[in-house]
Design goal:
homodimer, disordered N terminus, 13 helices, ten-stranded antiparallel beta sheet, alpha+beta, globular
Chain lengths: 706, 706
Amino acid sequence: MNRAALVLAAALLAGFVVPALAQTLRSPSRKLTLRFQLSPSGEPTYALSFGPKTVVRPSRLGLVLQNQPGLAQGFSVAHIDSSQHDDTWQPVWGEVKSIRNHYRELAVTLQQPAPQGRRLVVRFRLYDDGLGFRYEVPEQPGLTYFTVQDEQTEFNLPANHHAFWIPGDYDSNEYTYSTTRLSEVNTTPIEAIQQKAAPNRIQTPLMLKSDDGLYVNLHEAALVNYPALMLNVDTRSFGLTSQLVPDATGTGAKAYLQAPEHTPWRTIVVSDRAPEVLASKLILNLNEPSTIQNPSWIKPQKFVGVWWEMHVNKGSWNYADVSNIKLATTDWSQLTPNGRHAANTQNVKRYIDFAAKHGLQSVLVEGWNVGWEDWAGNWKEEVFDFVTPYPDFNVDELHRYAASKGVQLMMHHETSSSVTNYERRQDEALRFMKQHGYQAVKTGYVGRIIPRGEHHDGQWMVNHFVRTAQKMAQQQIMVDMHESVRPTGLHRTYPNWLASEAARGNEFNAWSSGNPPEHETILPFTRLMGGPMDYTPGIFQIKLERWNPTANKGRQVHTTLAKQLALYVTMYSPLQMAADLPEAYEQHLDAFQFIKDVPVDWDDTRVLLAEPGDYITIARQAKSKDEWYLGSITDENARQQQVKLDFLRPGQRYEATIYADGKGAHWEQNPMTYQIRKQKVDSKTVLKLQLAPGGGTAVSIKPVGQ
Amino acid sequence: MNRAALVLAAALLAGFVVPALAQTLRSPSRKLTLRFQLSPSGEPTYALSFGPKTVVRPSRLGLVLQNQPGLAQGFSVAHIDSSQHDDTWQPVWGEVKSIRNHYRELAVTLQQPAPQGRRLVVRFRLYDDGLGFRYEVPEQPGLTYFTVQDEQTEFNLPANHHAFWIPGDYDSNEYTYSTTRLSEVNTTPIEAIQQKAAPNRIQTPLMLKSDDGLYVNLHEAALVNYPALMLNVDTRSFGLTSQLVPDATGTGAKAYLQAPEHTPWRTIVVSDRAPEVLASKLILNLNEPSTIQNPSWIKPQKFVGVWWEMHVNKGSWNYADVSNIKLATTDWSQLTPNGRHAANTQNVKRYIDFAAKHGLQSVLVEGWNVGWEDWAGNWKEEVFDFVTPYPDFNVDELHRYAASKGVQLMMHHETSSSVTNYERRQDEALRFMKQHGYQAVKTGYVGRIIPRGEHHDGQWMVNHFVRTAQKMAQQQIMVDMHESVRPTGLHRTYPNWLASEAARGNEFNAWSSGNPPEHETILPFTRLMGGPMDYTPGIFQIKLERWNPTANKGRQVHTTLAKQLALYVTMYSPLQMAADLPEAYEQHLDAFQFIKDVPVDWDDTRVLLAEPGDYITIARQAKSKDEWYLGSITDENARQQQVKLDFLRPGQRYEATIYADGKGAHWEQNPMTYQIRKQKVDSKTVLKLQLAPGGGTAVSIKPVGQ
């Protein structure tokens, strides 16, 4: 039986009911039900239920086009394709070894009346853990180039759910989460990172919890050639409406498209168990397979970096303390060094030595290249050239030195959001990287975008991020993007795109009001639904006055030390930083052992306990090894967790090393106390974990007696 | 005496009068007088007179800044520097062998009250043929990064002059000129090329003629890192006010600057003789010297091109007749060729053969690269990649073939104004060019700019054009920019920037209402004041139905054949196209001899007769040769011109070959008749030229008896 026949047979077996105006589709295990219907005025609508519970009430679908009639009403159903799909695929790296992609699909071809007879396809994929749908504009006469003015996608919720949200800033995701009822969404009191939009506009991934026990996550998958999706909340009806990020023209244009083209998938992950939301692979499944034929050069890794010492005011990115520099004309060798420039050859060697000694793969160096003297905040086009080291950074010597120690240097391209400047210099920057042996790059997009008027989350920048992933892939370069648009699962398609920041990272603890202890219990339910985050865990020296008593007065990370370890498990990423200074780790080498041990690639993952805003406990099996690692974190409340180790191989005995909060530990008053104990365990063991307020526990579990 | 001492001595000798609020400066021969004065509210003003005649009445100066107080009033004079300057320099190529730069300078440092005490310098350079002035913001505390919201430069004219103007379109200069009184300026009835702005907004270079016999040209010099200058006309007071081209943000921002920085020079060329306006080197003098150390690779040249045959519907740029192409995914080898694609290997060889046979240096080929199927009008980012030839264009074979014939191929980069796309591919495009032996490139910017919202004439694009000239210079590539901002003399600084279009070229005659016969008598007084134009003269087959009776029905170039020859002299450019098809020239090889003979680089130039909108007669001496070439053109009126050849070397006999309109010639009814006669001449000869309506005469003058 060939594939087409299989699809047809599956469709027949599924027994779809096909009346003229309404379609019903059930998920493979019939947990979820989708109902598609045309309104009397020919508006497409959908509704989603989980068993008897309503997930989404009937909600409209459609596209509004600029300077021409929309694709939102006046439709009849021209054609319906239904099918089911079930296969399994292996990610290049990930939380699990293989992923099942099992869904039923409904593709509704809608048509407007003659003479234009314009067509729009709405394609639904219904999984047992949620729904994905997208708009497709097929190739057709009279509709080739078009501009999306607005997308009219509604998510009409049935009740006043709890929501975990951040404001709809078109240029930043670096907010702490607000937890309110939908009726209470109001971004007005929140200090803007770049620029907040309307008071009721919030971002996806949006995590929701209903009073009747449903966990619902709204996001999107495969964001390519389109702006990011935000949501306008009707605080009285609990209806959410899509808000696309606009372009620079001021005309309200959102996306310039050419048929055939489709939007990203709009995703609704839903379960009555919070851990299942974290375990969902729906967003990955809705992305395209990897475009990289031979991915052997892509290596999940841990790294240290000349980075945190600048955040804690021990060193500086800039080489000289001057405030008026022109890239094209400055003679960098003539500047007076400020004596605090961290990215100097000697200091970088110290990090290389540390990485080599402890088996960490890479050393990130920020501030290595000229331009940091007045790099931010001036909306200036020519800031960095990406190829000129400061006079005290000997790139050749460091390349040789790192290679001799078996360590990689990681490139850093801060663009200061002058993206036109970056793009026109990217080829030369890549030549420089290849010439000096760099295999990975961290990019940064701090500040307002150039092209001026564009947004970080608009179509133009979305395309830039994807293009950069592609360009780096062509050169076999891994990439970690900071201040990018938040991920939507594209690391399946571009597995060299190891991680992004695109949320409020650990760094905020260094120089702002910081991240509340609950922050890391929310991120996996929101930002991480789209993909890995370079959160930069592993801060051991939690009281920052140690590094600079004046500048850091009263500053600390809002965590216990043990929680920092647990984050390596709860915050999945194939790229994990050991973010603190070597001298901080050298004070606590017993605890650092966990960071040395913990893998960054996994064969299996079990989300054991999870509640957004409260706690998360996850266990993961190391890639190709019978070793497990467990992380458990809590918000500001102390908790006792009982963890069944029934995922261990029956009959095998293991030694668990438990890195726990010390007696009296507390994220604020006593964050650095921890205890390490070893315990023999097997698949019948129930581990009792005691988490301090704002604390956590990390456990490594290795087989014994083999 | 060192240079500083010389300047000081000159200043003392000049005997400047320095009262607190008013300054008077006279040009070297005292023809022109500048008066600078602060108004009672501390506004800087200037006025200019030519002998007793007022050129500019007192007019305000100043800069308005965004989000901070302006630099336009509240000033006192902090400091005055005055000096004079006299030297002579040699352009890499040009109309004359050497250029005298002789001016008196007044630099007024203005200061606002403490505590800010912000400073602005207005620098005036007064020549005998005009005035240049610019704003300079020196490095100073509290004013490093700033945004120019508006420039408040006035040119208050004393009367209702005649003006030769085009509408203030921020994206195009490709208009025919309107000739009206200032009071009658109104762009409303004029069909927009891209988008007209306010009804009274017009462009520079603006040519004016007063009733009392003054010829005044307003423009700018050295436009770098700043938007182009346009002018708002007060049709009642005859005051002109600067209007800078805005950026994409919609905030009215015009220029993002970093001190120390200066604006371009605002230029006022003035004379009581029209020919002296054309002969002025003021704009070149106000530009910086060449940045190219060894310019031996820069070669003024003539070229033919696979180009006009597309304009006259004989061939096509595109390879296939399809209207929906995606650069990234199309398999070009699978397209069905339309059979009319002009840039095919065989046809290009025909042009190479023709160029080689007739001693023309280069062959431009447009439509060689994939993407022309739906390249224009869609505001699409990915249109061309600049490195992929169509299947029928064998770049390697053509490179070898051209080289074997001693001919260069000229590259073509049409960007479709997707400039972000061009910039990110420019490095690769340059590698392709170097690999295949290209030494020159013609660029094009048809359509709306991407970054969307930016304008052709805004700061961002101005920087792009300059950056492109610089980038090409680094690779020893000559460049010819079409649809660029109009030139401002930057070819002095970047002599590899041979020419620009940036006005309504000959091509408009092929497919629009065309250019009226007066057009070429105005261009030298307007567009060409800033630099050479690639006007593409030399159309011999004036009735275009010859090439495609259906598509070109009734179409013709608005010229006589002889006038096309004269344009090679009257429209100065170091890059001149022989724009017609080889088969057109082969019908008239006697006339084509002038195009073969006429140089593109000169030792001397004499503007013999000129009146904007009416006629121009120019004689030029070939580089390093005792040969002269004369061109004389008229508008729609027949004229008899008496031309004294007193520029010839006394005592030397010459043979003049006179290419004149034939009997009964007329641009519309009988354009292709011409006569060629030879005549012995010397420095005492007065040539009588009979110009037909819309006609012209070209003359080559070569010494005999040597």
